[in-house]
Amino acid sequence: MNKKDNMTYWDDIEDICYETVRQIAACSTKEFDVDPDELEEVIWDEIGPQVRDLIIQRLSEIGGEFPFVDEDY
Questions:
Q1: At 72, is the pLDDT very low, low, confident or very high (cuts 50, 70, 90)?
Q2: Which 3-state string (H, E, C) describes the chain?
Q3: How far apart are CA 25 and CA 64, in angstroms?
Q4: How crowded is residue 51: how many other Cβ atoms within 10 Å of its Cβ?
Q5: Using CA atoms, how far apart are residues 33 and 37, in angstroms rounded to an integer?
Q6: Who has the most CB within 10 Å: 9, 59, 67, 68?
Q7: Are 10 and 68 contacting, i.e. CB atoms less than 8 angstroms apart?
Q8: From CA 19, how far away is CA 70, in angstroms rounded?
Q9: Quick count: other Cβ atoms within 10 Å of Cβ 52?
């Protein structure tokens, strides 16, 4: 897998994780104490990456493989 394809691969994984967090947030029975833009920032900068990293770590521990290509173009 080349770097460009790998970037797309990871973007797809992130999109899945972040959309899942957004859907769960939408299930809240109480309004959030922040405006929608700030909520999106929290999802993007904090919760989404934590969810992605935890899922990748746990699945890797049981045999999953999620390649990261780090090379120059």
A1: low
A2: CCHHHHHHHHHHHHHHHHHHHHHHHHCCCCCCCCCHHHHHHHHHHHHHHHHHHHHHHHHHHCCCCCCCCCCCC
A3: 28
A4: 18
A5: 12
A6: 9
A7: yes
A8: 26
A9: 19
